[in-house]
Amino acid sequence: MSPARRIGILTGGGDVPGLNPVIKSVVYGAGELGYEVVGIRRGWEGLTHMQPGPDLDPDYAMILDRRNTRAIDRTGGTMLHTSRTNPRKMPAARLPARLAENRAATMEVGGGIFDLTPVVLENLESLGIDYLIPIGGDDTLSYARTLDAAGVRLIAIPKTMDNDVQGTEYCIGFATAVARAKELITRQRSTLGSHERIGVFRIFGRDAGFTALYTAYVASARCLIPEAPFDIDHLVEVLVADKQSNPSRYAIVIVAEGAIWQGGTLPDVGDTDSFGHRHKANIGEALVDEIRRRSGEEAVASELTYDLRSGEADMLDQMVAITYANIALDLIREGAKGRMTAVLEGRYAHVPLPDPGLPPRTVDVATMYNEDRFRPQYSGRLGLPLLLRSDA
Fold first, then answer.
1. Which of 99, 121, 148, 173 has its CB 3.0 to 4.6 Å from that of 338, i.e. a possible disulfide?
2. Separation of alpha carbons 320 and 371, rounded Å
3. What is the pTM of this model?
C-alpha cells in the first residue's frame, strides 16, 4: 500500500552538474515532512512508458531514501537518468509498446504525432504522487506547465548551463560550465602560443550568450554571442592585433553556438528533436575558415561542449542546488503549486512557471556586452548583484 504522501522527482533534457545534489536534498528534507520520494527515471519518458500497476516499474521508477542517495551529491550527472521527451509531441515510432492501438488513436493530434498527457496523468495517479518536482530547462519546464494546467501540484527547479530559463538569473549547471570552460581555455593557451595560432572556442548557447560571456569575463577573452551579430572584418582585425601584440603570439575568441556575423547564415543540421530543435552548423569551424581567408593567419577551432556538463558540481552549483531543493520543500510545506525556484536580483525567490510562448532569457547587450571590443562590460558594476544581472 502506498504511503499517505509522495513526492515524485525527475530530471529532463541535458545533464548538468548539480542534479544529484538536488535529488539528495529533496530526499533528506522530504522525510522530515513525512513524504516518501519516488524517483522517476529518464525524465518525462518515465511517465509515458512505465507499466501501470500496484508495483513500481523498475525501468522507470524507484523509491529514493537516505541509503541510496547518501553519496550521490559527490558525482555529476543524474542518478535518475534523463531524456529529451515531450509527451505532447510523441512520434508514432516512440509510443510505448504497451499502449493499445485504439487508445493511441484517441490521442493523435495529427501527422503521426500523439499527445500522451492522459497517460502521464494516469501514471501520476497510479504512483500516488501528491507533488511533482521536475528539474530541467525551458523544454522540460514547458511540459510542467501543461501538467500544472491539468491540476498536477508541482514545484519546478531550473537547470541549464546556458542559464537562459525565463524568470531566474541562475540555473543549476551554469557556474560549473563556466569554471570548466576557463580551465580548458587556460590549458590550451600553451599550445596556441607554441604554434602561433588564433584559437576559436565554441561553447554552448543557441539562443543566449551567458556562458560565452561569463567565460570571457573570467578568462579575459573576446567573445561572440547570439544577441549581437558581429562585424566579421572588424573581429578579424581585432584578433590579428591581439596576436601581434601578445608576446606569446596567439589570440583567442569564445563563440556561442548561436552567434553569427552580420549578413551571415548557418543552417540547422540533423534531425528535429521532440521540442522542435535542430543543431546549428558549427560556427567555430565556419569562423576559422573566415579568419584564414580574410587574414591569412593560422586558426584552429576547439569544442567546449560536453566536457562542460560532465563531472561533479563546483561550489556555487552545489550550494544553489541544495538551496533550490529546500526552497521547493518549503513551498510544498506551504501548499504552493505551479511555482519555480529562482534567483532574482541576487536573492533566492520563487516565480511562476516559465511561459513556453516566450523566448529564452537573453543577455542585455546594452549593459553587459561591448560590441566594438567583443568583450563583457567590466565597468559600472557597483550596486549590482554578485552575478551580472540581465533585465531582458
1. 148
2. 31
3. 0.93
Output the nine-digit C-alpha cell for 68: 541510496
pLDDT along the chain (392 residues), means of 10: 78 96 98 96 97 90 97 96 95 94 96 96 96 96 97 98 96 97 97 98 95 97 98 98 98 97 80 57 94 97 92 96 98 98 95 94 95 95 76 46
Q: Catalytic pick from 139, 162, 164, 317?
A: 162
C-alpha grid cell, residue 46: 518515465
242 is catalytic: no
Provide the grid cell at 354.
Answer: 516559465
Can you tell me the distance from the alpha carbon of 116 to that of 90, in angstroms, rounded to the nearest whole number? 7
SS3 134: strand
Tell me if 6-172+313-352 shares its fold with 176-310+363-376.
yes
For 378, the 3-state DSSP assignment is: coil
Task: Compute the distance between CA of residue 49 and CA of residue 87 in angstroms, rounded to an integer.
Answer: 10
Classified as helix, coil or strand, 141 is helix
DSSP strands (E only) in the chain: 6-11, 36-40, 61-64, 90-91, 108-110, 113-114, 131-136, 155-158, 198-203, 222-224, 251-256, 268-269, 279-280, 299-304, 339-344, 347-352, 369-370, 375-376
Torsion of CA 83, 87, 89, 90, to 10 degrees: 70
Cell triple for 307: 566536457
* CATH architecture of the domain formed by 6-172+313-352: 3-Layer(aba) Sandwich (3.40)
Radius of gyration of the chain from Cα atoms? 22
Fold of 176-310+363-376: Rossmann fold (3.40.50)
Residue type, 22: V
Could you identify the residue written with the cell 595560432? 197
Q: Where are the domains of the chain?
A: 6-172+313-352, 176-310+363-376
Residue 37 pairs with which residues in a beta bridge? 7, 64
